Amino acid sequence: MISREKKQVILKDLADKLSRQQIVIFSDYTGLKVSQLEELRRQLRENGIDYQIAKKTLIDLALTKTGLDKIKAKELSGQIGLAFGYQDELLPAKILYNFAQANESLEMLAGLAGGQYLDSQALIELAKLPSREELTAQLVGGLAAPLTGLINVLQGNLRKLTIILKNLRPEA
After folding, report:
1. How far, in Å, CA of 25 to CA of 119, rounded?
2. Radius of gyration of the chain (CA)
3. What DSSP assignment string belongs to 129-151?
């Protein structure tokens, strides 16, 4: 049994995390072994993502307190864990998705990103998107490709001119 003071501390902590998050993902961890849950927490922690487990009533109170009551934890199935992403919207979804692929007991249920509700299918699609670095590399590659082609065309003409001049040179 959790004391009233402890519940207040948990509620305050949840509300603080919810107010600072870029994305929060609700997952059902029912059936995960303690070692698997610790591995998930380690992976998330290494990437600056908090993972917190709390009672559904406390989660709902914190959601209401922060104005993010588009999701009701009581309506979600299983035991609920929340992953809070503070800087990157994609990374928590990617880590949870990859972990769920390896551990069938974990399921992404729903999420909030920028105050918008995301269902499990939207979270999976979000997890499959390329990272910001990959998108930047693709953009730079796309911008560089026409310039590279132009340089190759210009160099080809210079090569041909060099070959022609070499053939015109009298043999010594």
Report:
1. 10
2. 26
3. SPPHHHHHHHHHHHHHHHHHHHH
Q: How far apart are CA 100 and CA 89, in angstroms?
A: 18
Pick the CATH number of 4-129 from 3.40.630.30, 3.30.70.1730, 1.20.140.20, 3.40.190.10: 3.30.70.1730
pTM listed for this prediction: 0.75
pLDDT tens track for 125-168: 989 988 778 878 888 888 888 888 778 888 888 888 888 888 88
Are 104 and 80 in contact by the 8 Å Cβ rule? The answer is no
- Provide the b/e sequence for 95-122 (b: ≥16 CB within 10 Å): bbbebbeebeebbbbbbbbeeeebebeb
Take residue 41 and report the two structure tokens written for it. 């927490």
